[in-house]
Every structure is written in C-alpha cells, then in structure tokens.
Specification:
Two copies of one chain form a homodimer. An eight-stranded parallel β-barrel of chain A has the order 1-2-3-4-5-6-7-8, surrounded by seven helices. The first copy, chain A, is built from 13 helices and eight strands. The first copy, chain A, has helices at residues 3-13, 30-33, 37-51, 63-66, 69-86, 102-116, 129-132, 154-157, 168-176, 194-203, 221-228, 241-244, 252-273; strands at residues 17-21, 57-60, 91-98, 120-123, 142-148, 185-189, 209-211, 235-239. The two termini of chain A are 21 Å apart. Helix content of chain A is 46%, strand content 15%. Chains A and B meet through helix 4, helix 5, helix 6, helix 7 and helix 8 of A and helix 4, helix 5, helix 6, helix 7 and helix 8 of B.
Chain lengths: 277, 277
C-alpha cells in the first residue's frame, strides 16, 4: 500500500489504529483453543470482522503462529489472505523482527511480501544496511525498522551513548534514513516514554512510526500523539491484548469491537482537535 | 545437548564443523527443485547422510524454509526430526535471529525448543535482556547471541564506540554474560576479521562461538582457530553454501560429503597440532 493511500484511509476513518493479532490460546474460549490452528483462524476472522471498521492496519506477530509449527504458518497465511480478500484497504504488518545477511534477508522479504502478501515487515537493525535494504525494493511495500522498543530491555542497548553523546536508537534512525525514505520505511517507536518519541520525531520528521505499548504495556495515547504526530498523522498506534483478549468468553469478538471503537473514538477526537478531519 | 557432551563429540570426531542447511532451489538439481518442500526434505536428508560423519552440528536458517510458507516450515520440522532420529549426537541450531519482547520471546523459545526440538536458537540482542533470557531457561538448550556478524552491514552499528571507547559488539558480549553462562549461551562471531574474534575471546573466555563466514564469505579457518579457540575448543565453524551446494548436479550429496570431510581433516589437523586430540 502506498503512503498516500494509507494517509487517506486514516483520515477517512478517523483512526490510526493497528490491531495486533497475537492470539493466545490461554486467553481464548476453551472450545476455540482446543481446535489449534483452525481455532486461531476462526478467532482471527471474528476479531477482524468486528474491528475492521475502526482500524486501518493489522499486525500479526509471527511468534504466535510459529509456536504451532507448519500449522501455525498456515494460520498466519490464511489470516493475511482473509484480510486482503475482505478488507483490501487494511495495511498488514508482519511483526517478524527479522534481520540477517543480504542473501538471507532477500529470502525473508520474498516470503513476506510475495507469498504472504503483507504490506510491511518489522526489521531488526543490528546487522546493518544489507540486512535492511532487501526489504526496500518492493513497490508499495515497507520495512519497519526497530528504533526504540517498548520493553524493559530497551534500556540495555538502545540508550547507550556513543562518543558524541548520540544514543544508539538515534544512530539507527539517522543511519537507516540513508537507506530508506518516508515512502518505504517506518520506525518502531515504543509508547512507554513520550518525550523519547519526540526525540525520534525530530530526527525523522516525515516517516511513519509504528507505536506499540499503548494499553497493556502502559503507554498513553494522548502523550504518543503530542510527541509523535506530524502533519500527515504519521503514526500507527498498535494495541494487541487490550483488544483481542478484552474478553476470554464467547463475546470476545464483540468486546474486541467495543475496545477498537473506543480507541477509534479517542483517535478521531484527537484528529478533530487538530483540525485534521 | 549439554556443553560437556558437545565438547566430547568434537574431540571424538576431530571436528568442530557445523553444516549450514540453507537449501537454495536454484542451486539444486532441477528434478529436486521442482518438488518444492518435498524436494528440500529429500535434499537435506541426502546432505545430512553424506556429512554427518564429519560434522558435529547442523544449522538450518529459517529464511530458506519460511520462503515456502507453511510447507517450508514442514520441511524445517522434518529436517530437524530426521537429524534427531538418525544422528542424535548432532547439535541442531535454528538460525532464526529472533528478538522480541519477553512474552513473545517465550513463544519463540517454546516453538523452537519444545516443538522443533532444536538445541539452540540464534537471537538478536537489540531489544535487550527480556528478549534473550526466555531462551536461557530450558535444560540443555542454548541462546546464540549475535555479537559480531560476518556481513558488510556489521560495520554500521556493531563497530560504533560508546563514550568510553567500547565498541557496541563488545557491549553486547559484556552485557549478555550478565544473563547467561557458558553452559547456555554462545555468541555469533563472524570469521571475516580474525583479530576481532580475538577481541571477543578476551571478553568471553569460556563461551562457545558460532563462527559463520568461513568459505563463501571469505574467512580463513586457520585465523579463526588462532584467535577464537580456547582450551575446550570453544568454536563451531559453520559452512553452508560451500558444502551443500558444492555441486548442483546429481552428485550434490557426494560432493557435500567430500567438502565436509576436507574441512574435518583440516580441523582434525589443527586439533592434533594443539594436542587436543
């Protein structure tokens, strides 16, 4: 999906919500959980149907599918195919955090963009240029580079200062912009510390940010928008557990829809305040 | 597999060779390539049978399987199962370079250790402690943390110096040792610059190193051993393309066996020189 289409979808829906499709059988109705990969497919389809009106993107995290082996990968593929067929205006992000040497990275890029047909893949920067650029050569496809993550461990390396005082996550954001542009590269910027989102925004004024950590991980939507938005919105805010596992009963899809609508309403209010819609 | 068993296997075979199972259909006999995932399984089994006498470890890179979707994951699983059943003394490394927040990292660890049954998983350090430690809690299983990779892009971030002059890959090696020990953590240390392997060895005297980059990527076995070995050998040297695609004809397995034997002979000579066998 092209950047202009993504921005138009956000503005027409009044939403920059990304729904994380990280289905945890332990939090699903027992009858569905017992069905393994088929249960996950059924669960995802119901959640997607209930939330698509309020979201502009879906982000399946591959770990939740790989844990079921080949059957899980089928669930991932069928989930992506279902979204593409029924909701073609949704942006699909494979949250895979891949990063490998050039020829291997090309295999991953082909697997996700050509076979699974997703719009974007999250990519880890540690291995540098040739691990990222293979994801940039597909028309309308995106690399989403990890910059500042929302977990506790983000302190361990991302905050290290180099000999000029620049933090490592800032080095990543500066260096990666030599490889990609605002039409094929986004950054993962965690929601847990608002002022840091502002630091990334100053370094990358036009790139979209994928912002995890709102909801279950404690980030505030207001703060994310204050520090992270640009004049084309420029953020996709992800919520996973807070939406898809809002209920572990048979009303899981209805409750997911309610949670997604609540977030959409908050997002629309923010966009209206800023006269963007 | 426990560390003592791995060291014993190395000494009894006179080999610290890891065979990278990264099957590229374009370099396989056409009749096999045409069979998709089944062709890859057949190819891998023949390569394993031909090389097992000379190797102590196998390292399938997940990208080469994921590129075939669910079918490819089946090929990965069947390959691992074949090794476990027929060559139970082989150490299996899933080269997946995973790294995600704690609860997600746990899913990956379970998928690889419990479902696929591998001994080790390569892990990217960028997200810090909670992305690595979930791989450390399984008896006889290992996290192989990326420290210094063998690709050109390794220059981009791994060589950055912090405000005390310590390079980033050194920070990773120091920090990671606060989480893991020499019995559950190895490091990936690329072969392309020998003296850098020595730098890592000084920081991590007892950990095993998984050394890619010998062969197709240009690293020298002699140099790797001079800088990387410790008194328990302490290195697994990987070769992928140089072995499994030594021939693209019907003699691929025989040629893979020949290449593996050549490397084993060189390794055994080095171990004998050092009076380790």
């Amino acid at each position: 999906m092209k950047r202009t289409d993504l921005v138009n979808n956000i503005l027409s829906k009044g939403s920059f919500l990304c729904v994380g499709l990280d289905p945890d059988p332990a939090k699903m109705p027992a009858a569905l959980a017992a069905k393994g990969a088929d249960g996950i497919i059924e669960f995802n389809k119901a959640v997607i149907d209930a939330t698509a009106a309020y979201a502009v993107a879906y982000k399946p995290n591959l770990a939740f599918y790989e844990t079921l082996g080949a059957d899980g990968m089928r669930a991932f593929e069928e989930t992506c195919a279902y979204i593409r067929s029924n909701y073609p205006d949704q942006f699909i992000i494979a949250d895979a955090k891949r990063g490998d040497i050039g020829n291997t990275a090309r295999m991953y890029a082909k697997a996700f963009f050509e076979n699974a047909g997703v719009d974007a893949v999250t990519v880890a920067p540690y291995m540098g240029e040739d691990s990222v650029t293979p994801f940039l050569g597909f028309d309308g496809k995106w690399a989403v580079v990890l910059a500042l993550t929302s977990n506790k461990g983000s302190e361990d390396f991302q905050m290290i200062r180099d000999d000029r005082g620049t933090r490592f996550f800032e080095r990543v954001v500066l260096q990666a912009q030599k490889w990609g542009t605002p039409v094929n590269m986004m950054f993962v910027v965690g929601a847990t510390r608002g002022e840091l989102i502002g630091d990334v925004r100053r370094l990358a004024p036009r790139n979209f940010f994928l912002v995890p950590g709102v909801g279950a991980q404690g980030g505030s939507l207001e703060e994310v928008c204050r520090y992270g938005m640009n004049d084309e919105v420029g953020i996709l805010v992800n919520s996973s557990r807070g939406i898809i596992h809002a209920s572990n009963g048979d009303d899981y899809a209805e409750m997911a829809g309610n949670k997604a609508r609540e977030l959409r309403d908050q997002m629309a209010a923010i966009l209206r305040e800023r006269s963007m819609i």
